[in-house]
Amino acid sequence: MMNNQTLLKATNLTKSFGRGHTEVHAVNDVSLEIEQGELILIMGPSGSGKTTLLSMLGGLLRSTSGQIVIDDTNISTANESLLPDIRAHKIGFIFQAFNLLDALSVRENILFPAQLIPDKIKQANQRADQLIERLGLGKRRNALPATLSGGEKQRVAIARALINQPPLILADEPTGNLDSQSGQDVMMVLHDIARDENRSVILVTHDPRVEDIADRILWLEDGVIRDRKEDKHSWVQCPVCHMQVDEWTTPFTSAYQSKRYAFCSKRCFERFQASPHSYGAEHD
After folding, report:
1. β-strands 91-95, 200-204: how paired?
2. Which of 154, 170, 277, 284 reaches 20 to 30 Å from 85, CA-CA?
3. pLDDT at 223 over 50
């Protein structure tokens, strides 16, 4: 990281759905700060509130309470009509499903968000060409999405997120639809963006390969977030799906051949119980 300036500050964020006895806190009193140039992972089991939190940080979903300040702009109190302009200038989004427009070429897809900032369209055209070359899409600039591989589509999505030079990049499972090598390539691109351009990148992911390149890993469970480098829990891999799990708090554990195993869910626990030798336990 190039400096220690805070880019994003979220304070006491809560998002509730339903009322009375049916009320559910998808995100429950979450506070966090992200510095410029940081690459942050938000991990946790399915249904833990990761996408809900990311949507709030990106101004796509209003919080029930709390506030979010991005680059000195309080998006929690901003008028709804101002949010598209704030997102266009300050936030780039990368989605698992790519969300490319089928009728547009690679270059046209990349330039699409630049229409929200008409006075910078000339610079956007120059930047699009630079991003196309940087991301290895030079020979595909005029191709339609239907002809692209998964890795190429995600690189187009990354370039689109960067076209307006936002200080914050939000990525929701960016490697979820990619093969191993393409996923690794995409993660290194995001890593380099954080380092080379001093942009903050927040990733929601289940991909354990990303952990080694992250500055911090935030674990979200039951709507509550904590920094795994600061808590006193014991993190291990579930032997079935390899997701990170806190062996001190998970209710799913099993002893096999003098070793204790921890599982992220009842499903993984039952799979292990049915066939422990299938998950390498006999070698431990």
Report:
1. unpaired
2. 154
3. yes
Going by C-alpha positions, the residue among 49, 47, 51 that lies closest to residue 60 is: 51
Query: Where does the chain have alpha helices with state H?
Result: 50-57, 83-90, 106-111, 121-134, 150-162, 180-197, 266-274
Number of neighbouring beta carbons within 10 Å of residue 231: 12
Q: How far apart are CA 127 and CA 67, in angstroms?
A: 33
Q: Supply angle C-alpha 29, 72, 218, rounded to 5.
A: 40
Global pTM reads: 0.77
First to last CA, the chain: 39
Give whole-number Cα distances, 34 to 42, 137, 216, in Å: 12, 31, 10
192-218 pLDDT tens trace: 888 888 999 999 987 777 777 888 888
CA 130, 94, 38, 188 torsion-angle sign: negative
H-assigned helices in 135-247? 150-162, 180-197
- Helices 150-162 and 180-197, interaxial angle, to 10°? 20
Q: Decide the pairing of beta strands 235-237 and 244-246.
A: antiparallel
CA quadruple 236, 238, 241, 244: dihedral sign = negative
Positive or negative, the CA dihedral 84, 183, 186, 221 is positive
**What per-residue confidence (pLDDT) applies to 2?**
47
CA distances from 187 to 109, 174, 207 (A): 21, 8, 10
Positive or negative, the Cα torsion across 43, 215, 195, 5?
A: positive
CB of 68 closer than 8 Å to CB of 145: no
Q: What percent of the chain has pLDDT over 90?
A: 51
